[in-house]
Structures are given as structure tokens and as C-alpha cells.
Amino acid sequence: MTVLDRSELQASPLADLHLIADQIGLEGFRRLRKADLIDAILGEKREDASDSDSAASDEPVEAAERRPPARRSRSTRSRRGGSSTKSSTDAESEGDEDEKKAPATERAPATERAPASERTPAARRPRAEREKSEGPERVAEGVVEVLGNGSGFLRVQPPEPSDGDVYISAPQVRRCELVSGDRVSGPVRAPRRSERYSSLVRIDKINGESADSVAEGTRYDDLPVSYPSERLAFDSEDPTLKAIEWLTPLGRGSRALIVGGARSGKTETLRGILDALSGREGLELSLVLAGARPEELGEWRKGSVAPAVALTFAASADAQGQALEPVIETAKRIAARGGNAVMLIDGLDGLHPPTARKLLATARNLTDGGSLTVIATAARPFGGETTVIALDAVRASTGQLSALDLVNSGTLKPELLVGEDGAEAITRARATAAEA
């Protein structure tokens, strides 16, 4: 597991700090303020800690919990703005913060909760008693599903949820940069209090690799890249898609733009490519609608892949760029870990040109690794594409299929995707189209 970082701990909610403190066997941690708790987790001693605080920390937890709180004078309370120290019960209730944020179906119903006499927090029991009651460390392995609130679950029988699933806290998801579909393993602890699911103590393996080596790997932008060499087959009967597949081929890691004027069929072509690629084993598809027509949103949602982001043309360029950022980061992590991600975007015209170029530049075929493919629509090329698919508005509007404008279309190094004979056939077809 990666070394805990002070900035990450400071950004974590108190509930997650309590979880970490309990797992490392820190006694009396529920009486500590957040700053003191972070120092204790990191093994540091605060310079402003008094001798009385140090002595109190060595006192058994049970004795400290039974001792009644010191009574304050009315004047002391008024000087502090009427605030009072949070009771231990309130602090313990924060321990379920992430559990409460999970969907209602993921939380334990009231009927499943143990009687109050049996819900003594594990942190209040001596370490020997906790180890005896919790038994030996159990290791779980499964597939990650990240939730909207940043936490996640380890699905032991993917893709369906089950009672054996294991909860993953949001800080663990962030620290290990987990994405849905990652296969991870690690020790778990039994549910506490009103929790329904076991919780992941730490992450040992990510996709078969040590969590430390994955977290400390080379930055995505620094990984070596190659031209796309593995063609994406559509196997479609649509004339335009057939022409694209063989005359402007796409590969894993391509930066592809579908360009053309209004009513040239850019969106329909992108929809056809999405349908052709959906369900393919080994491809992680994500759909982004940036600047779509309101009427199109419902149609996209009925398709084979639900949009990860759906914004109409009313959204500003800044809003569209911000919405795209988390989707891009997820796709980059998939590629960096050896997977093959495909982002389909409709369209780029509403973005600032530098943002659009930056987005296109994330697509690449990683040498001896995974790939990130970007297929987007735009009125014209931005520059840097490996494949340009130009559509003819006249041919599309008059029903002449395919609508591919072969003269203005093209793929860099097509021989890597379709072989030398295929590349020569593309050259002859382009020459014929230019003479027509």
C-alpha cells in the first residue's frame, strides 16, 4: 500500500481517519482532534501537545470512556462562542458517513442491525479482544465498481451485486486511482454497528500487480507510444461504416475526427460506430455529449451505451471542458494499466480550441501497453489527428451512400492497420475519387 500522505489525510473526512486509526491499532483515537489524529497516524508528536494530553493517551480506553467529562463554567462556554466538545457518540456516528452516502440499496436496513448491547465499537475493545473476535485476516478479490460519491464496492460476483461484496472508502479509491473494472484484492474486516458490508482494509493487488508499483508507475504522458497497429473492425452492413472501416481505417489508439458541414451525418455516423463497438470484449467504451441538441439526449440514452456526460449546446465551453476532465482521467488510467479505452465525443466545436486539441492528444497507442482511442465529431480538423473521416453533406442529404468524402479523408500509416495491399487499394480508390 502506498505511504500515507499528510495532504491526503487532511482532505479525508473524519470517518475515514477513524477507520485508518483503528486498523493501525491507535488507542484512544476518538478523543483526538483531527490535526492531532493525523499526527498520530503519521507517527508524529505535536509540539504544542501538553504533558497531560500525553498522559491521557497512555490511559486505557475503557477507563477514559467511563470517566465523566469535566464540567465547564458558564463563562468559559460563553467565551468560546457557546460551542461544546463533540461527544464520543457523535464522533462514532461520523464513522458511518461514507456508508450513509452509498445508495439506499447498499446500506443495511434497520432490521439487520445488532442489538445496542452488541454494537460496542471495536475501537473501544482491547486489541487482544478485537483480534480474538474478528479472527484471522480474510482476503477478498473482485472487480471494482466506483459509485457517484467517490467510494466504491468490490464485486465478488461481477457484475451483479451480492451480500459478499466489500465496501471501498473514497480515500482508498483516490489514493490507488481505482476505476470501474479494475480487479483488486486485499484484506477485509467484518461489518461494524449498522454496516451491512465488510470493508476493505487495504489494497494489495491491482490487476495482478502490486498496488505500490501501480501507484508509483510512470506518468501517462511519459509512457512510450506507437502508431495504431490493431484495426477496429465494425462488421456493419451500413455503407458508410463499411467505407470507413477499409478506406479510412481506425485502430486502437487512433485520434479520429468525423468532420463535415451541417446535416452531413456526423452524429449518425458516430452513433453507428458506437453501436458497432459496443459489447466488444476488451474495449471500455465511454460516451460524452458536449453541445448536443436537447432532442438528441433522449435518443442517446436509449442506445447501447449510456452517456457519461450529457450537455446541450447551451453549456459554456468552460463547463463542457470541466465535465470532460474526469472521463478523460478515467480513460487514461485504464490505458496506463494495460486496458483499451474508447471515448466517443459529440462534439468538439463547443470547446475552446486548445481544450479540444488537448483532449485529442490524450489518445495514443502505448508501446507494450494499453490504448486510448478518441473518436469525435467537429466541423473541421483541429490538427494532430491520425484519422480524418470527412463526410459530404450533399451525398448525405440526397441519400447517396456512402456519404464518405474519400478525397478529404485519410489515415496515417494505413499499412499498419490493413497491410501493404490494403494501403495500395486505398491509394487507388482515392485517385479514382479525385478524378470523378
Describe this structure in words.
The protein is α/β, with parallel strands linked by helices and 436 residues long. The chain folds into two domains: 188 residues, OB fold (Dihydrolipoamide Acetyltransferase, E2P) (Beta Barrel); 211 residues, 3-Layer(aba) Sandwich (Rossmann fold), CATH 3.40.50.300. 36% of the residues lie in helices and 17% in strands. It is built from 18 helices and 16 strands. Strands 8, 9, 10, 11, 12, 13, 14, 15 and 16 form a nine-stranded mixed beta sheet that branches. It has a five-stranded mixed barrel with strand order 1-2-3-5-4. Strand 10, helix 14 and strand 11 form a beta-alpha-beta unit. The radius of gyration is 28 Å and the shape is elongated. It starts with 5 loop residues before the first helix and ends with a helix.
Q: Report the top-level CATH class of the largest domain.
A: Alpha Beta
From the alpha carbons, calculate the radius of gyration and give it in angstroms: 28 Å
β-strand amount: 15-25%
What is the CA–CA distance across the termini?
63 Å
Estimated helix fraction: 25-40%
What would you call the structural class?
A: alpha/beta
Quick one: CATH superfamily of the largest domain? P-loop containing nucleotide triphosphate hydrolases
Unreliable stretches covering 5 or more consecutive residues: 45-133
Mean model confidence by pLDDT: 79
Total tally of structural domains: 2
At the fold tier of CATH, the topology name of the largest domain is Rossmann fold
Supply the number of helical segments.
18
Identify the CATH architecture of the largest domain: 3-Layer(aba) Sandwich
